[in-house]
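re: ur question from yesterday

yeah so i grabbed the chain u mentioned. its 324 aa long if i counted rite. heres the sequnce exactly as i have it in my notes:
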Amino acid sequence: SIQLERVDTSVADGDGIGAILFRGGESSQTDVSRIRVNADADWTSSSSPTKMIFETTPSGSTADAPRMTISHDGRVGIGREPVSWVHIDQTGAGTERGLYVYRDLASGSTDGELVFINNDNTGDDQPALRVKQDGTGDILVLDDGATRALTVADGGMVTMNRSAADESLSLAMYSTVDGHMPALLFKKSASNTIGTAAATGANDVFGQIVFQGFDTDNDVKGAAIIRASADAAPDGDSVPAKLEFMTSDLDDSGSPTTRMTIDDDGLVTVHTTLAVGSGGIRHEGDTDNAIIFGTDTHEYITGGGTRFKLDNNSRISLSNNDGN
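ran it thru and got these structure tokens back, copy pasting raw so excuse formatting
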């Protein structure tokens, strides 16, 4: 064993306790690496905190510099004094990673985690983060204790789970510029290669928002959809699109039906499966103000029951509720 000692009546924070030096050079000998032990706070008769500092000499220099520090309470700092339990400062100018973890999983191993972060609150384990990837399992999961809050599955599918009554996803923008806003971006490329741009087709679906619920058999079913899709083939500077609004009734087995479409020209089409003369646009709770679409006639009902009727022969008639 090697024993290095310092005997002093007073040891202050930062004072050296001992060091192992490594020296070398071609024309002259210099310190090229060292392991130092310093006081990590002022010493007392009952407390002697220390830290270890590891130093190396970088390329293009002959002077060693601190690379890793282990504090008196076990904190590890790489490239700096640690203020967190593991603290890394990346100062290189290249594209190297700040942290690289590699694990060679055996074939078929689906449960091994590459990174596991657990918050132990007075004996109450609170798993917070798991990172694993073996080609079949989840890539990343965030846990709120025993509740799985977010999952990024193999292939990139993202799932969020929440049992509280408020929103599950919140987007906020803080800016003094009028045009700045929170936004969701849906982007479709007609290529199977991630990051490769390719023109979409005349029938491509660009994205949709799907609303789901559970039926009485506890099976998940589609309830409503807002879908954006192509309304024609794109050209050199435009991508024509239409919006479809779909809802579900008791007869569609979880496949919502298109109820309204806004096409690339701005034309609004209302779709209905109701009997002729029943479908149309109404003011909520008001049967005296509506537009009723029929086969032979189209009625425009205004307040007080007055009707403006247009038939297929382009004939116009006016009447009130008593038929006059």
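noticed a couple things. The chain has no helices and 21 strands. also The mean pLDDT is 81.
anyway ttyl
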